[in-house]
Amino acid sequence: MEFEEINHLLELARIEIKEEEKEKLSKDLESILNYVQKLNEVETSTIEPMAGGTFLENVYREDEINPHKENLEKELKNAALKLTNDFWEIPPIF
Length: 94
Known about the structure:
This protein has 94 residues and is mostly helical. The protein is built from three helices and two strands; from the N terminus they run αααββ. Strands 1-2 form a two-stranded antiparallel ribbon.
């Protein structure tokens, strides 16, 4: 990559670097562009495009009120919580 292009990119990004760093940046950008070129050579004409990374969808359920508060208290009796006026009270973290 030419220093003219690198200077233009640095100006757009409002970044200032030393001249010796431009050489390393040039090599790094050249390596990245070569890798992207290899990706462009992959045959993708038979692959359908995707809008995201997966076809999975979220599964939702309705919230339900648990009428069996007694069981919940029994299950959480060893936890560092206590039930006060239908709210769980926890110890402070600070």
